[in-house]
From TrEMBL:
Entry GO MF terms: transaminase activity
Top-rank lineage group of the source organism: Bacteria
Keywords, ordered alphabetically: Aminotransferase, Pyridoxal phosphate, Transferase
SUPFAM superfamilies linked to this entry: PLP-dependent transferases
Homology family: Belongs to the DegT/DnrJ/EryC1 family.
Native species: Kitasatospora cathayae
Protein's name in the database: DegT/DnrJ/EryC1/StrS family aminotransferase
One Pfam family named in its UniProt record: DegT_DnrJ_EryC1
Cited InterPro entries: DegT/StrS_aminotransferase (IPR000653), PyrdxlP-dep_Trfase (IPR015424), PyrdxlP-dep_Trfase_major (IPR015421), PyrdxlP-dep_Trfase_small (IPR015422)
């Protein structure tokens, strides 16, 4: 990043932070004025569809991004600039919130999102995944002190203590 900033010669740098939530280099998070991250299902912090976030510590720039993402309007009576409807919808927020930990039930079994006529057994693959997948806390904010506890819980869950050499 240092070489890229030097090459930019004072011009603003927009970072693609899609694979680096929480990452730091030489004590810093972002290097540019603004960073963008995606929540596509294939990303580190994947959601259920397309979504993303723009990150900056500059108030004026953050305000401009919010304005563009809300139809270019500060209130319902006046649009100040061209904008888009880029607000995240509730189902996407639920999936992203669950991405920080394990969701014990698939979305179609959550009361707020249960489609009429669907229930237990409607999506057996999703239901099996919710029962069987492990979602250990693996993220950049996991401290050295927390790691042994994660290993201990995983070993207990997997029955490693009951096996020879475990």
């Amino acid at each position: 990043m240092e070489a890229l900033l030097e090459l930019a010669d004072g011009r603003p740098v927009v970072e693609d932070a899609a694979q680096s939530q929480g990452a730091r280099r030489h004590g810093r998070g972002a290097y540019g004025r603004i960073a963008a991250t995606g929540f596509h299902p294939g990303e580190n912090l994947g959601g259920h569809g397309d979504a993303g976030a723009v990150l900056t510590d500059e108030d004026e720039l953050a305000g401009a991004v919010r304005l563009i993402g809300d139809h270019g309007a500060r209130d319902e009576s006046r649009q100040e600039r061209f904008g888009l409807n880029s607000r995240m919808d509730a189902p996407q927020a639920v999936v992203l919130r669950a991405a920080g930990g394990h969701c014990p039930a698939p979305v179609h079994l959550q009361p707020a999102f249960r489609p009429p006529g669907y229930g237990q057994g409607s999506y057996p693959v999703a239901e099996r995944a919710a029962r069987e997948l492990l979602s250990p806390p693996l993220h950049p904010h996991l401290t050295q002190a927390q790691r042994p506890r994660v290993v201990e819980v995983l070993e207990t869950a997997l029955g490693a203590g009951d096996r020879p050499g475990g």
